[in-house]
Design goal:
- Helix content is 42%, strand content 20%.
- The protein has 349 residues and is of the alpha/beta class.
- The strands form three sheets. Strands 4-3-5-6-7-13 form a six-stranded parallel β-sheet, sandwiched between helices. Strands 9-8-10-11-12-14 form a six-stranded mixed β-sheet, with helices on both faces. The chain has a two-stranded antiparallel ribbon with strand order 1-2.
- Strand 1 and strand 2 form a beta hairpin.
- The longest helix has 17 residues.
- The chain is elongated.
- The two termini are 30 Å apart.
């Protein structure tokens, strides 16, 4: 990607922080997202109108993937290409996701930008796209394959190990480096869950006084997070912290703790990942101590950029690593408005 496009993308991270069209300067952990007037990118809105980019996210029911889709819409507006957003109804529906990809391939989209439901299962769709001469950009969740034809042309995602480590480190310090901790993992086979958990474990191992007494998949779902937490509390009612691989499972854990007579934020410290209106509200209430944010809008935006670069004959990198931030009560207010706007955004307008 040329330098002008990268500057425009970093500007987008800042410009979408407070509201969908409002600008602000935002510290993204070790990365600073620059702000600028997005109209400065209007010169790129030429020569791409013939392209139709198919964007397939896991589900519009999860704010994370709505954000990916929104980033793609913004890139389409900036670069003048058509964006066809599609999604399965729930996480884990890998067969349905492959079916959607196959339909888009049959309808001759020019490129695919996909958040894979399963790191291994999606390889079938990657291969089908390549056999049809269609570039495949994977975002958020990496593809695991030994077949050269099933390797995406580019993967865009966060360093989930590093991101998980950062959240777990903050939680470990908050509980004084001592106590029992449980981990709520996401969907089995998803690289985001596997790597984020690896980061959690890596950080907790630095504290001899902390013991991980349970870790279990809760499928990135709120109800499942509540159920799994309840089951683990049966054998370990004296836990000091919960680390969740996404905010929905953390919200489920809060309900489970309450049902057990425990207060989230006081009796049990919670660290999670991803952002949503409910998660931001929980941080404001003190129920969630910290949640990580991986700027998912950039996945969609950069994904479309990479697809267009490929279609226009430019070399694209095999991997792009996105920034991440950690949100606490000190910084939650500036993210809440964005979450509210994203929740209300009408993709069919």
């Amino acid at each position: 990607m040329n330098k002008f496009r990268r500057r425009a993308s970093l500007a987008l991270a800042g410009a979408l922080c407070v509201g969908l069209m409002a600008g602000c300067t935002t510290d993204t952990g070790s990365n600073t997202a620059e702000t600028s007037d997005l109209s400065n990118t209007s010169s790129t809105n030429t020569g791409n109108s013939q392209y139709n980019i198919g964007v397939v996210v896991k589900t519009m029911g999860n704010p994370l993937f709505r954000e990916v889709a929104y980033g793609a819409v913004q890139a389409g507006a900036v670069y003048g290409c058509k964006i066809t957003n599609q999604a399965t109804s729930a996480e884990g529906e890998i067969d349905k996701q492959i079916e959607i990809c196959d339909t888009l391939i049959a309808n001759k989209v020019d490129a695919l930008v996909v958040t894979p439901q399963n790191s291994k299962g999606i390889a079938t769709a990657v291969k089908a796209a390549h056999q049809a001469g269609i570039p495949f950009i994977a975002v958020d969740t990496a593809v695991e394959t030994t077949d050269a034809q099933s390797v995406p042309d580019c993967f865009i995602g966060m360093d989930n190990v590093d991101a998980g480590y950062a959240v777990a480190k903050m939680v470990a310090e908050k509980i004084g480096g001592e106590g029992k901790v449980i981990i709520l993992m996401g969907m089995e086979g998803a690289s985001t869950s596997i790597e984020r958990t690896e980061g959690y474990v890596k950080a907790l191992k630095e504290y001899p006084g902390i013991s991980i007494v349970g870790q279990q998949n809760a499928n990135y779902e709120q109800a499942k997070g509540q159920e799994v937490t309840a089951n683990m509390l049966q054998t370990n009612p004296d836990i000091k912290a919960i680390l969740s691989c996404n905010d929905l499972m953390a919200l489920g854990a809060i309900k489970s703790l309450s049902e057990s007579g425990l207060k989230a934020g006081e009796d049990v410290i919670i660290g999670s990942y991803d952002i949503s209106v409910s998660c931001m509200n929980a941080i404001q209430k003190g129920e969630i101590y910290v949640t990580g944010y991986h700027w998912a809008k950039l996945y969609g935006y950069w994904g479309v950029e990479m697809a267009l670069d490929y279609l226009n004959g430019l070399a694209i990198p095999s991997t792009i690593t996105s920034p991440h931030s950690e949100i606490t009560a000190d910084s939650v207010d500036k993210y809440l408005t964005f979450c509210q706007d994203l929740e209300a955004y009408n993709f069919n307008a």
